[in-house]
Design goal:
The protein is an alpha+beta fold and about 600 residues long. It is built from six helices and 33 strands.
């Protein structure tokens, strides 16, 4: 190899270049690189176990210095192979092995620069054509200028506070500065009175066992309704029909529609079958059978005579009703249990297409929680009103802040501590462990907006939107993630999940989707499951999760990845293994035996 440096260059330069080459080809440098590589991999593993995979990615595998180290390692391997020039037969395995290592390192560098890894959540019935990447950004929209801006946010491994200007001079009408960055922050929210926004009330519930305070916010999907076990708390926009009659002495079927609750008496002593009209609706109930002590025998409900060890009750130990719900283009079989209002069995349909939840109520038996409701409604003339619903009975009153009111059930009393005609949510975040799995933990930043000398700051959790008025302009800020086009579309037709028996632990889940690639004229039905991804245009789409929000459509969450370096790394592995095999098992075939 030394002869290769015999050029027209001065001899001193030749010697310097040769010494540099020998340094990169040296065994000590190779040993150093191997030790450093092992240290890096061990550190990455420890970081991942202590702080999560994203921390190891940010600090090591995505860091520029790691790319530089891979380049140094590749240079060392290439120089070691070139140092053997001119190659002879005995060098065959050595050269092939080093060539394989260089190809693998090249593939690793390609992964760093070219790999796409993101998510694509899709609601059932909807179509998506964009991937959400793990690259945070700040989105700012000006209502006054009808203009928007996108500012990339540098990822950090640990909580950070300081000042990092996000805007370039002249880029926007304002200056945006990042002052806090939390990879995982616990959200803390408080409601405060405002000049505009939805109404909010702070309610205290108390009896000998319960003493808790909750906020309700009007027209807020997550805060307008709360379930507290003994009752439902609701801040609604309309009143329930008032009914001061006591609940019937007999049992009754309760049909809870979205806008009203209707009770249909059921006489346990009446002859069956019996047809009853649900008042105010086009539906009828055909009572098939009434049980006092229902028991399942060979997958059928039977009447148990004189249940042993059970206290006597006028309405039985396990009251139940089997009935047929009829209406326009509707005929459903149901079984309702008084003691188990949410019990879904093979004995009947668990949900009604009539849009109603159905309960069987009997005096002094079963859980009455579903029929206990404390409702608040703003009335233009009378102010803030409350309604106490106790099964059949509904009574209405005017709210006086601070005044204690008895609900009439379970010795429970309520008191409205605060009432804001208009409110807003103040959010702040506290840093928590990067490995926190809490639903309240999320990536969060605090941004300061400066315009004409006036400064305002706001906390933003990932996916949250906040409005800001600087006095000169009105802005909307969103902390989101970068999105890129997929190049084709995915429509989610149906999502299915199966749970382990007796648990809410998902055993398997899958999605039926439609692949739509307009540029190639492709429309194809595909099933994506946990172990069966969809591969198209170099992308692999995996079923990675799901959401089943109450009252909303099911959402399927797909992981989307594309790594063009995979064939390169596979090829490098094959070449390297081939070289190793030649070095240890076929070396004699490449060495000429001297005679």
């Amino acid at each position: 190899m030394k002869a290769a440096f015999s050029t027209l260059m001065p001899e001193a330069v030749q010697r310097s270049l040769y010494r540099i080459f020998k340094f990169f080809a040296s065994l000590p440098l190779a040993i150093f690189n191997i030790v450093v590589l092992m240290t890096i991999l061990a550190t990455g593993t420890i970081l991942e176990s202590l702080h999560g995979a994203s921390t190891a990615q940010i600090l090591i595998y995505e860091a520029p210095w790691f790319s530089a180290f891979l380049l140094l390692l590749g240079t060392n391997v290439a120089a070691a192979a070139l140092d053997r020039l001119p190659w002879q037969g005995r060098h065959t395995g050595f050269v092939i092995t080093h060539a394989g290592i260089i190809i693998i390192l090249l593939g690793s560098l390609m992964t760093q620069k070219l790999m796409i890894d993101g998510q694509m959540p899709i609601n059932e019935g909807e179509t998506e054509a964009y991937i959400t990447l793990q690259e945070p950004l700040l989105y700012v929209y000006s209502e006054d200028l009808q203009k928007d801006w996108f500012f990339p946010i540098r990822k950090r491994a640990f909580p950070w506070s300081g000042r990092e200007v996000l805007t370039e001079p002249g880029e926007a009408t304002f200056s945006a500065t990042l002052t806090d960055y939390f990879p995982k922050g616990r959200i803390d929210e408080s409601l405060v009175e405002a000049d505009a926004g939805p109404a909010a009330i702070e309610i205290n519930l108390e009896n000998s066992f319960v003493n808790q305070t909750q906020w309700l916010v009007e027209d807020d999907p997550g805060r307008s309704r709360l379930s507290l076990g003994p009752a439902q708390l609701v801040f609604a926009d309309e009143l329930l029909p008032e009914n001061l009659e006591a609940a019937p002495a007999t049992g009754y079927l309760e049909f809870q529609f979205k806008t009203q609750s209707i009770q249909t008496p059921v006489d346990a002593e009446a002859a069956v079958p019996a047809v009853l009209q649900i008042e105010g609706t086009p539906y009828q109930v055909e009572i098939r059978q009434i049980f006092r002590n229902a028991i399942v025998v060979e997958n059928e409900l039977k009447e148990q005579e004189n249940p042993v060890g059970k206290a006597a009750s006028p309405h039985g130990v396990n009251p139940a009703v089997q009935f047929l719900l009829r209406g326009p283009e509707l005929a459903e079989e149901h079984t309702a249990f008084a003691n188990f209002p949410d019990f879904s069995t093979i004995h009947g349909k668990s949900e009604s297409d009539a849009g109603a939840k159905i309960f069987y109520r009997t005096p002094n038996t079963g859980s009455r929680g579903e029929s206990h409701e404390l409702r608040f409604v703003e009335d233009a003339e009378r102010g803030l009103l409350y309604q106490v619903k106790d099964g059949f009975e509904v009574r209405t009153g005017e709210v006086t802040v601070g005044e204690e009111v008895s609900t009439g059930w379970m010795d429970l009393k309520f008191r409205v501590k605060s009432y804001y005609p208009h409110s807003k949510v103040n959010r702040s975040f506290t840093p928590v462990s990067n490995r926190s799995e809490s639903d309240l933990a999320m990536l969060a930043i605090r941004v300061e907006i400066t315009e004409e000398g006036k400064k305002k700051s706001v906390w933003l959790g990932q996916g949250y939107s906040e409005a800001m008025d600087t006095g000169r302009s009105h802005y909307h800020l969103v902390y989101g993630q970068k999105k890129i086009p997929l190049g084709f579309k995915i429509e989610l037709k149906d999502f299915r999940v199966q749970f382990d028996p007796g648990t809410q632990q998902a055993a398997s889940y899958e999605s039926d989707v439609v692949l739509k690639d307009d540029s190639r004229g492709i429309v194809r039905d595909v099933n994506i499951s946990m172990n069966e991804p969809l591969a198209h245009r170099g992308f692999r789409i995996y079923q990675s999760g799901y959401l089943q929000p109450e009252g909303g459509p099911e959402m399927s969450i797909f992981s989307v990845g594309r790594d063009p370096s995979i064939p390169v790394k596979y090829a490098g592995t094959i070449v390297m293994v081939t070289g190793v095999i030649i070095m240890f098992y076929f070396k004699s075939y490449f060495i000429k035996v001297k005679k």
